[in-house]
Amino acid sequence: MDLVSTPVRLPADWRDFYALTKPRVMTLVIFTGLCGMLAAPGAIHPVLGFAAILCIAVGAGGAAALNQWWEADIDAGMKRTAKRPLPSGRMERESARDFGFALAGGAVVTMGLAIGWLAAAILAISIFYYAWVYTVWLKPRTPQNIVIGGGAGAFPPLIGWVAVTGHITWMPVVLFLIIFFWTPPHFWALALFVQTDYAKVGIPMLPVVAGERVTRHQILLYTLLLVPLSLVPWAFAGTGAIYGVVAAALGLVFLALALRVGLRHSVPNDTMKPEKQLFAYSVLYLFALFAALVLDRFV
Amino acid sequence: MGQDPDQNPDKRDFDLAAFRARQKARNRALGLLLGALVVLFFAITVVKLGVQADKRHGSSLLYDSAQHG
Q1: Which chain A residues have any C-beta within 8 angstroms of a chain B C-beta?
Q2: Is the confidence metric ipTM above 0.85 for this complex?
């Protein structure tokens, strides 16, 4: 092929492939996976521990790439996502699809060979859950997409724990549930201040379908479930006072912010400051809660 | 319709230069990634072999102690 006489399309830059993996989301995935691993009873060789975390991160990156491959048209219609590599035309869709499958497959096989097939199976389920159950099935169909789909982001501490112990006990399941119940208030706070974007592309996010009032009440409801649940490891699983005090304090602040969001109504040209604060705090909350869990184990 | 790049040497040089620079950057990133994977798999293999050897050594000691009381 003569490159000079035919239209030249630049190949996608490596930074675009990196962006496909949603690095910011991956930070939380890596952190919670690492915390699950460090909080688990027992020990893992540092090289194998590193490999396990890498597999969790790469698997999440693969799922994110598949998500963007599937949702390229939707992303193009939203201001928040329009500059991603696919909607902005910097990459061909097939490249994103192949990249996603390669990362996901590579991560699962490596996890199986290096760590064990139970951890690999849970990793495979988490990728499938995000890339298909959430992205393809739930997201365009039901306003409960975030509630059920939130399970996808809840797997990393479970995988980290299983990588160390080789089996599932109820403690990593509680960690799974904490992230599961954390996701709705976290994401709906975001959906409240970007709801016009979701409405534009026809995604049935709760604020779009059921309205703002119902969404605010649901945020409050899930926060009321989350806060006592976050105390379960302290009340029933023998984690120490450090975790208990930190979880209670973090939970009270979460509840206060959720109350403010849950009981207000937005006005025309509202800055949505309480919603933005709740969203920002929810990220900090999860980091701090899992950090406290690890700290409690080693102090 | 776009202008024929042959009639516009500046554009042709720019496109080719950008194309090759992009390819070079991708190849370099891929090379680094493959190199890192080789190192990672080698390290995992060494560690797994060590763990297996420890297990075998431990089980043979158990076997010996069981045999010889």
Answers
A1: 3-5, 7-8, 10-14, 45, 47-48, 51, 54, 113-114
A2: no
